[in-house]
Specification:
Helix content is about 75%, strand content about 0%. With about 80 residues, the chain is mostly helical. The relative contact order is 0.09.
């Protein structure tokens, strides 16, 4: 896969933390940013999927809708603080 170079601006304190983490993991800053962006995108996709599942559950009537209503906040808690 081809790589594309880009430049970003960071607060100095964040930049220093990135340097320390990259050094501790024995990877380049570029690799650390790549891993972080991949993880962030995956988590965003998971939240989108959860929203679609919740939309599908909205169509449920009857007894199961009470269960879904109780489960929905727990599902959101599982993904909201992942990033």
């Amino acid at each position: 896969m081809a790589n594309v170079k880009t430049a970003i601006s960071l607060e100095k304190q964040l930049f220093e933390k990135v340097n320390v983490m990259a050094k501790n993991l024995n990877i380049s800053r570029s690799r650390l940013f790549s891993i972080a962006v991949q993880e962030y995108l995956k988590r965003c996709q998971n939240i989108e999927l959860l929203d679609k599942i919740n939309d599908a559950y909205d169509d449920i009537d009857g007894i199961n809708s009470d269960i879904v209503t109780k489960m929905r906040p727990n599902h959101y808690k599982m993904v909201k603080d992942q990033w």
